[in-house]
Design a protein that fits this description.
The protein is α/β, with parallel strands linked by helices. It has two domains: about 220 residues, Rossmann fold (3-Layer(aba) Sandwich), CATH 3.40.50; about 80 residues, CBS domain Like (Alpha-Beta Complex). The protein has 18 helices and 14 strands. The chain has a six-stranded mixed beta sheet with strand order 6-7-8-3-9-10, with helices on both faces. The protein has a four-stranded antiparallel beta sheet with strand order 2-1-4-5, sandwiched between helices. Strands 11-14-13-12 form a four-stranded mixed beta sheet. A hairpin with a 2-residue loop joins strand 4 and strand 5. Helix 7 crosses helix 8. The radius of gyration is 23 Å and the shape is globular. It starts with 9 loop residues before the first strand and ends with a helix.
Amino acid sequence: MKDVQSENDIKISIRHLYKIFGARPQEALEQVKNGMGKTELQEKHGHVLGLNDINVDVPSGKTTVIMGLSGSGKSTLIRHLNRLIEPTAGEVWVDGENILEYNDKQLRKLRKVQMSMVFQKFALFPHRTVLQNAGLAPSVEGERERKYADEARKWLDRVGLEGQGDQYPHQLSGGMQQRVGIARALTSNSDIMLMDEAFSALDPLIRTDMQNLLIELQNELQKTVVFITHDLDEALKLADHLVILKDGFVVQQGEPQHILLNPADPYIEDFVSDINRARVLRVRSVMERTTKPLAETAGDIDHDDTLESVIALSEGDTTLSYRVIKDGAPVGLLNMRKLVRALVPSEQSDDPDSARRSG
């Protein structure tokens, strides 16, 4: 596999995936494989390049965020994972099986049992109660409400909708409706949750609440989540594994902290240039790794603390150093001067004058 993870750690493996929209996609595919890009393909051949040789491993039990601007191919990609869209070429492996070889019966099982989907526009049935919407998956399987009610109610309670089961969607706010969508996905008991711009229609404060809820649920349940967004702040907050698309191809993918500190392309540099790095970067990404006994330090900090919290703790004193702790054991040392250097974007940090100005 591409990553250091073993095959058992990979839930979904996407290999050489192409999608071309148009009347003669196979002919256009040859042009793409010969190096033709999205703009030229549309101008010369009237075909739209949706996905261009996508290779991504989605780790099991983690949140993979696929992000990019409008037209980058992110929503097209997620719809290939449950074959709502058929590819022009390539493979999609789920639990070791290529789902592009599935027949209709196997596909129905995939969509009902293995995967659930949370949509941007909620996609609730207006004539069903909140409880009935949450219990949609068992209902489709033929279960009566009295049989699935306890399970659906458990997840409604878990997402903060206790006592709302008899309401109808129009009686709920947008944030509450999206909570129903998440409860519905959880009631289905699927291993994989696909979330397509699930929070982008929500007001900023409600959106933050929903992000925090997803993080809390993930810490508890460890589902395999594939989350689509165009918002980098949201991506960096949620992602264990981040995939950034542009014009249908993967520009960079990996651990979000690594991408932020090591942008591999000018496009990525532009993306991350306006990010509040102190709020996003974690101690573990900039610390010096060591388990040796340390000389006097200003105190202990956790490896997953944000740099912003360490700056507040130090009150801006750049002469201090902190011992870094993970699960109760020392794992490293963070010097405040190194922290300050990490806050300078890479193209500036190579300039010694800019480093002096920032520190």
